[in-house]
Amino acid sequence: MLSPQDQLTELVRTLETEHHVFATDPLLVTEKLQAEAGTPPQKLHWRAERIDSNGALARVLGKIDARIKGIMMIMSIVWCVSGFLGLFTLLQANVVNFFYVLVCLLGFHSLMLIGWLVLAVINQGKSSVNWFATFVSPSRLIRGKDDVTLAAVDLYERQLQHSGMRWYLGRFSHQLWLATLTGMLFAIIFLLIVRQYSFSWESTLLSNQALITLTHVLGWLPSMVGFDVPDNAAIVQSRLVTDTLPLTVARQWASLLIGSLLMYGIVPRALAWLFCALMFRRKKMRLDIKLPYYQKILNFWQRQVVDADDFTEVAAPVAPKASVSAGKKLVALLEYPSNTDKWWQAGLELFDGSGSENEVENFGIIDDRDDMARLMAYLNEHPLQVLLGIHSQALPDRGTLRKLDQIATHAKDGVIVQLLNQENIDVTLSNITQKTPQQMVRYQQWQTALSARKIGLVNNK
Question: Which of 188, 219, 451, 428 is nearest to 319 (CA)?
Answer without folding.
Answer: 451
